[in-house]
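Hey L., structure's done. Input below.
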Amino acid sequence: MPRIHLALLIAAGLFCALASPATASRSHELGRLKAQAAQVSIVRDDWGIAHVHGRTDALAVFGMIYAQAEDDFNRVETNYTTALGRTAEAEGEAAIWQDLRQKLFIDPADLKAKYAQSPAYLRALMTGWADGLNYYLATHPKVTPRVIRHFEPWMALSFTEGSIGGDIEKVSLPELEAFYGRKQVAALADDSGLAFREPSGSNGMAIGPGITRDGHALLLINPHTSFFFRSELQVTSDEGLNAYGAATWGQLFIYQGFNAHAGWMHTTSGADTVDEFAETIVRKAGKVFYRYGAEQRPVTISTITVPYRLAGGGMAARRFTVFRTHHGPIVRAADGRWIAIALMNRPIAALEQSFGRTKTTDLASFLKVAARAANSSNNTLFADDKGETALLLPQFMPRRDNRFDYTKPVDGSDPATDWKGIDGFAQTPHVLNPTGGWVYNSNDAPWWAAGADSPKKADYPRYMDQAGENPRTAHAIRVLGTRRDFTLPTLIETAYDPFLPAFARMIPGLVTAYDAAAEGDPLKARLREPIAALAAWDDRWSAASVPTSLAVFWGEALWARVAADAKAAGVGVYDEMADRSTPAQKLAALDAAVDRLTHDFGTWKTAWGRINRFQRINDAIVQRFDDAGPSLAVPFASAQWGSLASFGAKRYPGTKKYYGSSGNSFVAVVEFSDRVHARAVTAGGESGDPASKHFNDQAARYAAGDLREVYFYPDQLIGHTERRYRPGQ
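Output:
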């Protein structure tokens, strides 16, 4: 035998000897995961929605996250690269500041320690979560993660609430970069507060049995988020778990949904739970301090490393020296002072509350779970089969001295500005079982939530709300206060009521401006027909409506003209548009709207449905749109104008049509009777795979507001089942 061949064989034998323990370990791990998978079943219904069952809650979570990964692993992984501050490892240098922001609050070593401190049941859930994802990757070798190739149980603590964005996004990335990058960075238009942007948030309505036809409580679940942000599924166990609804991709709980007895809907809150503290910095003897009362406390200094992918595929890293005070990390500078931000960071309690609410059965048990006080950004609408309804504000509500204005950075050197614990349930605005029968929230203040049963603003500190009202406020009150025979179908009608209150308020002023214009004004003749169309309009959207197109284009043009004036005057943009904008501004904006409609569509007499479109032709997280591709007309409009059914649409590079990318996403209505009854629709479809028939099979129903039957009970799945299997099959 030639010497070189012998050497190769010896080396190969040595390699096998060295590798065998690892191989055995991997084999043992795979066997352990297979044994768990054997105790989990998944049923896919005829919409592709997963109905998952596990013997225990942890096994149900195993199957739940496995099913999510089947539907859209990319979105699952992306949510955790974001949550862990690892986006730049996939997307490159442009994401460094996003990752730094996250790493100011998320430290793997800290999360590992918190995982070890978690209750045994919660560790079991997190372990089931990681096992389900790792088993998916093991059984799908063609799936290549961009960053996270193995999931650890502690990672579940990095993303515990389910909101889109969350508290951390209140930290401005341009200002963070200006501070830690030590350079001038231009503010983004969105950061200035002047850009026209679709409101994020949601609608929720809980209807008491006293104003329903059949004497059962009803719940509307209507989150307004980025499309395809959540998975619709059902998860059950032999330990009492049985929840249906929307789970934010990658999470181990149903975020907005219901079980056989109760339902919950979250809306983004206007309550103040995040504050900034202006720190007075003192430097001496090469060290950095900040004033706090009579003290000079040392600033905590540490280093954060942010790895990022190079254009050629290699990796590099940037290291940042970051600063903290007892208020929180420093995130920017203003007026010669460093600004620290304080926000909730209670991952164990938050994950316990998020999972625990899915197993509550009535208002008392729901309030018991809420007592963990780890929901910081959501108002919650609740209904149950006892006929109970409620609105809760965030349970993480820092107690503050009401003398100070926390809408701006407060003086961090004054100990009186510090948070002083958390306000309890009794100290926060809420509504329980209102006598008027209805309660709602549309990201507005709670002072209008239940008519005469609403909490009174004067009874609470001003930090309990910073949102005030919005155009949906009056709309919701209008449609809820006139009906006493609600059913599931009429609740759907309410959720899709076509009235646009912002235009009902603003168009009379436009018509007055036109009537007052001089006959010799060139706009008088040019705008005669458009004004007549708007004056005769009933302020309701529809796909066939020309005035809807004209009003939306006019509203956007006027917004661009007066937003800076509104900010300078300290008034809302709607007030500026309706009451303070000049006749010349109103008419010039309409002239611009007519010109743009004519330029883009050939005539200003263009029906709204020709412009406002739903399109899903690719699986990109940031969607790409194409006027030449197939799309569907959507009749409902932006929540910006008070539409309860929200469709946040705009032009994109290369398009003239408006394409929606946010707003109504998962929509459901639920009736709590002897058997819970629900209908729902998801934007596009359940699958993120363009090759799947469930990628876009709900699009037509979505555009029409035609909610489908929910198969909550096993007998409802009979005749509606596509596949039964266990994970890995």
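The longest strand covers residues 315-325. Residues 1-19 have pLDDT under 50 and may be disordered.

-- N.
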